[in-house]
Amino acid sequence: MCLAIPGRVEEITTEGGLRMGRVNFGGVVKRVCLDYVPEVEVGDYTIVHVGFALSKIDEETAEKTLADFREMGVLEEELAEGDEAFARAAVKPQSACPDGSCESESASQQVSKSA
Protein backbone atom coordinates (compact mmCIF):
# COMPACT_ATOMS: atom_id res chain seq x y z
CA MET A 1 0.00 0.00 0.00
CA CYS A 2 1.24 3.49 -0.72
CA LEU A 3 -0.38 6.28 1.23
CA ALA A 4 0.33 9.98 1.39
CA ILE A 5 1.12 10.67 5.06
CA PRO A 6 0.77 14.04 6.82
CA GLY A 7 3.77 15.33 8.73
CA ARG A 8 4.99 18.48 10.50
CA VAL A 9 7.94 20.33 8.96
CA GLU A 10 10.69 20.74 11.59
CA GLU A 11 13.52 22.14 9.47
CA ILE A 12 14.05 23.44 5.94
CA THR A 13 17.36 23.37 4.09
CA THR A 14 18.64 23.50 0.51
CA GLU A 15 20.51 20.50 -0.90
CA GLY A 16 21.84 20.49 -4.44
CA GLY A 17 19.49 23.31 -5.37
CA LEU A 18 16.42 21.49 -3.97
CA ARG A 19 14.33 22.66 -1.05
CA MET A 20 14.49 19.83 1.51
CA GLY A 21 13.14 19.40 4.99
CA ARG A 22 12.98 17.23 8.08
CA VAL A 23 9.37 16.17 8.55
CA ASN A 24 7.95 14.54 11.70
CA PHE A 25 5.30 11.89 11.12
CA GLY A 26 4.01 11.41 14.65
CA GLY A 27 7.43 10.63 16.06
CA VAL A 28 9.23 9.30 12.98
CA VAL A 29 11.35 11.99 11.32
CA LYS A 30 12.30 11.68 7.66
CA ARG A 31 14.05 13.78 5.02
CA VAL A 32 11.54 15.06 2.45
CA CYS A 33 11.72 17.09 -0.75
CA LEU A 34 9.74 20.33 -0.27
CA ASP A 35 10.41 21.74 -3.73
CA TYR A 36 6.80 21.29 -4.92
CA VAL A 37 5.35 23.24 -1.97
CA PRO A 38 7.22 26.54 -1.72
CA GLU A 39 4.52 27.94 0.58
CA VAL A 40 5.28 25.41 3.35
CA GLU A 41 7.28 26.78 6.28
CA VAL A 42 8.71 25.31 9.49
CA GLY A 43 5.80 24.35 11.73
CA ASP A 44 3.39 23.71 8.83
CA TYR A 45 1.91 20.32 8.03
CA THR A 46 2.26 18.75 4.61
CA ILE A 47 1.09 15.60 2.85
CA VAL A 48 4.07 13.46 1.80
CA HIS A 49 4.14 10.62 -0.71
CA VAL A 50 7.32 8.65 -1.52
CA GLY A 51 9.52 11.36 -0.06
CA PHE A 52 7.90 14.34 -1.80
CA ALA A 53 5.68 16.91 -0.09
CA LEU A 54 2.60 17.37 -2.27
CA SER A 55 0.48 19.97 -0.50
CA LYS A 56 0.03 21.96 2.68
CA ILE A 57 -2.57 20.67 5.16
CA ASP A 58 -4.04 22.10 8.36
CA GLU A 59 -2.91 20.72 11.74
CA GLU A 60 -6.33 19.36 12.76
CA THR A 61 -6.72 17.31 9.57
CA ALA A 62 -3.11 16.10 9.78
CA GLU A 63 -3.46 14.91 13.39
CA LYS A 64 -6.82 13.22 12.66
CA THR A 65 -5.36 11.45 9.63
CA LEU A 66 -2.32 10.25 11.60
CA ALA A 67 -4.62 8.93 14.35
CA ASP A 68 -6.79 7.13 11.77
CA PHE A 69 -3.72 5.56 10.12
CA ARG A 70 -2.43 4.40 13.54
CA GLU A 71 -5.82 2.90 14.37
CA MET A 72 -5.89 1.06 11.02
CA GLY A 73 -2.35 -0.21 11.68
CA VAL A 74 -0.90 1.19 8.46
CA LEU A 75 1.23 4.07 9.74
CA GLU A 76 4.19 1.95 10.85
CA GLU A 77 4.04 -0.04 7.62
CA GLU A 78 4.12 3.10 5.48
CA LEU A 79 7.01 4.64 7.42
CA ALA A 80 9.19 1.50 7.51
CA GLU A 81 12.56 1.73 5.78
CA GLY A 82 15.04 -0.62 4.18
CA ASP A 83 15.49 -3.95 5.95
CA GLU A 84 12.45 -3.40 8.16
CA ALA A 85 10.20 -2.83 5.13
CA PHE A 86 11.59 -5.93 3.38
CA ALA A 87 11.13 -8.04 6.53
CA ARG A 88 7.50 -6.94 6.87
CA ALA A 89 6.81 -7.64 3.21
CA ALA A 90 8.39 -11.10 3.45
CA VAL A 91 6.02 -12.27 6.20
CA LYS A 92 2.88 -10.82 4.63
CA PRO A 93 0.76 -13.24 2.63
CA GLN A 94 1.25 -12.56 -1.06
CA SER A 95 -1.70 -12.27 -3.43
CA ALA A 96 -1.83 -12.74 -7.16
CA CYS A 97 -4.62 -10.14 -7.14
CA PRO A 98 -3.75 -7.29 -4.74
CA ASP A 99 -6.90 -5.47 -5.84
CA GLY A 100 -9.07 -8.31 -4.45
CA SER A 101 -10.47 -9.34 -7.83
CA CYS A 102 -9.43 -12.99 -7.34
CA GLU A 103 -11.64 -13.26 -4.28
CA SER A 104 -14.72 -12.04 -6.14
CA GLU A 105 -13.95 -14.39 -9.07
CA SER A 106 -13.53 -17.29 -6.65
CA ALA A 107 -16.83 -16.49 -4.95
CA SER A 108 -18.57 -16.30 -8.35
CA GLN A 109 -17.14 -19.67 -9.37
CA GLN A 110 -18.31 -21.27 -6.10
CA VAL A 111 -21.84 -19.91 -6.61
CA SER A 112 -21.85 -21.23 -10.20
CA LYS A 113 -20.73 -24.71 -9.06
CA SER A 114 -23.41 -24.95 -6.38
CA ALA A 115 -26.19 -23.91 -8.79
Summarize this structure as a short list of keywords or feature phrases.
single chain, 115 residues, alpha+beta, SH3 type barrels, 4 helices
> Which parts are unreliable, with pLDDT below 50 for 5 consecutive residues or more?
85-90
Top CATH class: Mainly Beta
Outline: globular
* CATH topology value: SH3 type barrels
Number of DSSP helical runs? 4
Summarize the structure in words:
This protein is an alpha+beta fold and 115 residues long. The chain has a single domain, classed as SH3 type barrels (Roll), CATH 2.30.30. It contains 4 helices and 5 strands. It has helices spanning 59-72, 75-79, 82-91, 101-114, and strands at residues 5-15, 18-25, 28-33, 45-49, 52-57. The chain has a 5-stranded antiparallel beta sheet. A hairpin with a 2-residue loop joins strand 2 and strand 3 (28-33). The two termini are 37 Å apart. Mean pLDDT is 78; it is low at 85-90.
Task: Tell me briefly what this model is.
This protein is 37% helix and 31% strand. The longest helix is centred in the middle third of the chain and has 14 residues, at 59-72.
Task: Give the SSE map.
Elements: E1 5-15, E2 18-25, E3 28-33, E4 45-49, E5 52-57, H1 59-72, H2 75-79, H3 82-91, H4 101-114
